[in-house]
Amino acid sequence: QVHLVESGGGLVQAGGSLRLSCAASGRTFYNYAMGWFRQAPGKEREFVAAIAWNGGSTLYADSVKGRFTISRENAQDTNTVYLQMNSLKPEDTTVYYCAARWGSWGAPSALESEYAYWGQGTQVTVSS
C-alpha cells in the first residue's frame, strides 16, 4: 500500500512557475507508476501527466505538453514524484492530485480508474 501527500501548491501570476511534490510512503514505491490529475469545482477530474515506475516513459495531456514536466525519485528515503509547471495560465487553476498505479509492469496511464491510491490534493491558483 502507498500513502501519498502532495505539497507545493500556491498562488502565482500567469507565466510563472510552480513545482508540486508528492511524497510517498511504502516500501514498494518503485513498483508503481505515478500520475498527476486535476479537478476544478463542478468538473470531472482530468489527467495531467504520468510516469513509469522507473521514469523511463511519460505521458502528458495535450493541454500541458511543453509546459509541465513530471519526474520522480525512487530512493529509500526520497520516494517522491514531482510536477514542474512552467508558463502557467489562469486555466491551470484548480486542485492537483497525485496518484499511484499498481501493476501493468509499472507503465503509466492516463485513465483515472487505473489508479488505486490518491493524495489529498494541493491547490494551484494562477492569477491573470
Describe the secondary-structure layout:
Blueprint: E1 3-7, E2 10-13, E3 18-25, E4 33-39, E5 46-51, E6 58-60, E7 68-73, E8 80-85, E9 94-101, E10 117-118, E11 122-127
Sequence stretches where pLDDT stays below 50 over 5 or more residues: none
The gyration radius over C-alpha positions equals 14 Å
Please tally the β strands and state the result: 11
Based on the structure, what is the oligomeric state of the protein chains? Answer: single chain
Distance between the termini: 40 Å
The major beta sheet can be summarized as: 7 strands, mixed
Strand and helix order? EEEEEEEEEEE
Average pLDDT value?
Answer: 93
- Count of helical regions: 0
Give the CA-based shape. Answer: globular
How would you describe this structure to a colleague?
The chain is mostly beta strands and 128 residues long. It has strands spanning 3-7, 10-13, 18-25, 33-39, 46-51, 58-60, 68-73, 80-85, 94-101, 117-118, 122-127. Strands 2, 4, 5, 6, 9, 10 and 11 form a 7-stranded mixed β-sheet that branches.
Key features?
128 residues, 0% helix, 4-stranded antiparallel sheet, single chain, globular, mainly beta, 7-stranded mixed sheet
Summarize the structure.
The chain has 128 residues and is mainly β.
